[in-house]
Amino acid sequence: MESEQAILAFAALAQPTRLNVFRLLMEHEPDGLPAGEIARHMAAPHNTMSTHLAILTRAGLIEAERQSRSIIYRAKLDAVRTLTGFLVKDCCGGRPEICAPLIADLAPCCPPNKSAAKETVCD
Amino acid sequence: MESEQAILAFAALAQPTRLNVFRLLMEHEPDGLPAGEIARHMAAPHNTMSTHLAILTRAGLIEAERQSRSIIYRAKLDAVRTLTGFLVKDCCGGRPEICAPLIADLAPCCPPNKSAAKETVCD
DNA sequence: TCCATGTGTCGAGACTAATCGACATATTAG
DNA sequence: CTAATATGTCGATTAGTCTCGACACATGGA
What we know:
The structure is a homodimer. Chain A is mostly helical. In chain A, 59% of the residues lie in helices and 11% in strands. In chain A, strand 2 and strand 3 (70-75) form a beta hairpin. The longest helix of chain A has 18 residues, at 77-94. In chain A, 36% of the residues are buried. The model of chain A is unreliable at 112-123 (pLDDT under 50). The structure holds a DNA duplex.
């Protein structure tokens, strides 16, 4: 991942409305939500929301697909993976000894099939 | 992690100089670097850098410690872990089935004791 | 104490982002 | 074709950010 793209993603998420939109779309994976419904959820005018959605799209965090009159937006899960990878990349590069505990703390957050896992960074 | 804190962190990293400073300090873990040397590295005036360092500090991404005349800055590894956790938290909450592959792709990036691991998101 | 060195703070100018009314475009129904 | 619905674009205003010169503060040595 390029720094430039990461900066776009960070800037996109550094805004309360947009961060909430992104989280909302994560909750609604993989169905997504139409632009109007997102605006209603956030209690924002449709044109303001349109701008926010464009910024998130340009950042590669969400994607749009026309469905008759509505435009459905979905979170791009790859974006989370890529951005997360970018965050830990630096320490991975030369020094896995520092990075390993980060991953270790993160792993129990997503258990393959157990449920007692919300102790570390999940909340 | 609170949204507010996450937004501070995202905003702090959404700026080329600050992102580079953060990466620089990650490379220099755990020794850190004095403010002046950071400014020299980035070819920025000391007062501009001071502002950037203050923003990163307020965001909880780095920390400062006085050492005689110099002030040493260090990356806070917890910050990466917390921010990463925040990013994947939403899908973890209700739907580990979506989140699991994200972690799976990330894990080989930091091998406990092997070296062939730079295939996925490491670069 | 006085000076040099290393950092932080303040304030102004330039730039960029956020918001929203008004208008434009696209799709579908009648 | 016309109207209704859903969304995007433009332009202006307001607010916030970035940068850097000038100055202030803190530390250590002579």
